[in-house]
Amino acid sequence: MKAEDLKNLKIAIVGAGYGGAAAAKALSLLGADVKVYEQAPQMGEVGAGIGLRPATMARFRQWGIFDTIASVSSASDYFEILTAAGDPIMKDTWPEFGEEKHTYLIHRRDFIEALLGVLPEGMVQLGHRLESIEDKGGRSLLVFSNGGTAEADLVVGADGIKSSVRGQLFSAKGPVFSGEHAYRVVISADDAHGMVTDDNLRMYIGKGTKVYLLPLRHRNQMSFDITALNPDGTWAPAITKEDLLKTVEGFDERIVDIARGLDMDSVNVRAVYDIDPVDTWHTDSVVLMGDAAHSMLHHQGQGANSAIEDAGALADALAEAGSVKEALVLFQATRKPVTDELQRISRQGWSEEEVNDVFPGQKPKPQKPASRKPASQPAEPVKA
């Protein structure tokens, strides 16, 4: 689109998570008039660590915010996969993207605060829960539960796995339970029993359990995450210390010691959900992105990265295409094949014998899919 057309473009983003905040930055750099509407009265985030891949960091460099993100993260050179007992299975560097060679390990809260911190004051409107969206073709009307309204030439649905935009305009299907639980907590490096020695991600796998150790040495902390098979699809299930310890039986004794020493009140416990692929992400003036479009299981560590890539691709498409309608067609054509494959591989999971399938770009071996059943709409929100 021409620069003049972009400057006259009014964009409403629903949701101020990773994808929404990144889209706000990328789209505002085009000169568009951008507003972000977030349902929460104040921003918060689950206390756990994630890895920002080289391609994601390249986007941040393009948008002029690389140093902002890097200053609250640690650069990782490689990842390592080990058996439950600690025997090495695989060790490899992160896939490079141009000049970017590192994955940056960051606390989720620091990440969202950094993204929101680079947006102009007043761009994000808190306390705006979407009540309804009326798609009028070239323009849409948003109505919020607080009585507010907004009109926009383009609405970006970045409102997560339980997306209201998706539910009203694109798909009535709810999240799907994976048959797993995720237990996440950030602990002091001093309580990690000597397992924080560098800035590299390590994954221990065995007996249907995966343990992720993600160092946050810039905080003198470590993100300690356990993913374990469990048939309870309750969104926020109740588990005991004994339950948690059973998931790491037979693992490296240091991992068992970490689990034994946890304060259960600080552990975030969630059943793990994703969504089935959505056939169409857009109308002529409304588009889905991030978890709203393609929420995926966390086995690939690609949820936040995919949302950032979506934001960049949407901005690229608007700059390249002749109209909003054409841009949304281009955006879906660019991103949906990638995220469809990530969703598929993430559902497939992996074991000691399937480590070559852990990361995208490697063709997975045929595997009998796990039994999966749709779940009713969960009662409370989650950040994937």
UniProtKB/TrEMBL annotation:
The answer to whether keyword Oxidoreductase applies is yes
| Alphabetical list of SUPFAM superfamilies matching this protein | FAD/NAD(P)-binding domain
* Domain FAD-binding: residue ranges: 10-338
Q: Which UniProt keywords apply?
A: FAD, Flavoprotein, Monooxygenase, Oxidoreductase
Q: Where is this region: Disordered?
A: 341-384
Q: Does the keyword Electron transport apply?
A: no
Q: Which InterPro entries match?
A: FAD-bd, FAD-dep_Monooxygenase_BioMet, FAD/NAD-bd_sf
- Cofactors named for this entry: FAD
This chain belongs to the protein called Salicylate hydroxylase
List the source organism. Arthrobacter liuii
